[in-house]
Amino acid sequence: MSYSHQTVGSGSRAARRTFEFGRTHVVRPKGKHQATIVWLHGLGDNGSSWSQLLESLPLPNIKWICPTAPTRPVAILGGFPCTAWFDVGELSDDGPEDWEGLDASAAHIANLLSTEPVDVKVGIGGFSMGAAVALYSATCCALGRYGNGIPYYVNLRAVVGLSGWLPGSRNLRNKIEGSHEAARRAASLPILLTHGLCDDVVPYKYGEKSANCLSISGFRHLTFKSFEGLGHYTVPKEMDEVCNWLTARLGLEGSRA
Predict the structure, then answer these.
(1) Collapsing DSSP states into helix, strand and coil, what is residue 144?
(2) Phospholipase/carboxylesterase/thioesterase domain spans which residues (predicted)?
(3) What residues form DSSP beta bridges with 224?
């Protein structure tokens, strides 16, 4: 099953961009369907590579949806086009954010989850840039709206971010503390963040800062795990952590230890 070349517009400006998303790969649950998770690849990758890894995990009750990001020029690559969920320059605390790209990707993911059965728990996970979009979606879920003000309706039950960072962290605490409902939603959303101490692409400090920002912004059910000797990739020990966390947080049945 694939959603090929789906175009999603985002933003309230009159001349907004449109984004053409690539193929979506779906891994069906091998057991009772209890949860659906959209998993987002990193910069320059595609949904196929992650679908193969996710299919091998001992999580028979999860349906995995692995979309492919639009191909676009990316500032950090000198404008070279590749698959990217949003445009990004150098990672910094005060760099500009591509809010339009972030909103378009978050809306595309929400659309993929919108047709899931009501009794199925839904979540978002990702690696690197995919983790950044997963965390941005978590903030949209808490605030009840995208960055452009359009309502966000998906009730996320779990968010996982591997080797990533949180876009738009500067004003997050003020936004959430300014709304009782946002604070309530943030406090109830479980988030797992993992990061390698030897990551030379998205340095560990950005994962640590992201975890701290989410924590002080009211995301109380946040787990941050660091991995000694791990660079910008994933290893079985890290994926075991993901499996155990998802099984516990989503109350999954029949998962192998």
Answers:
(1) coil
(2) 25-247
(3) 193
Q: What pLDDT digit, counting tens, does each position of 86-100 carry? A: 999 877 666 678 999
pLDDT (tens digit per residue) in 208-236? 999 999 999 999 999 999 999 999 999 99
pTM: 0.91
SS3 content of the chain, % helix, strand, coil (to 5): 35, 25, 45
**CATH number of residue 149's parent domain:** 3.40.50.1820
The answer to whether residue 13 is domain-embedded is no
Domain count, the chain: 1
Q: Where are the alpha helices (DSSP H) in 128-252?
A: 129-143, 172-177, 180-188, 204-216, 236-250
Does 257 fall in a domain? no
DSSP assignment of 51-87 equals HHHHHTSS-TTEEEEE--PPEEEEGGGTTEEEE-SS-
Q: Give the residue numbers spanning the domain of 34.
A: 22-250
Q: Measured between alpha carbons, how far is residue 128 from residues 19, 43, 216 in Å?
A: 20, 7, 22
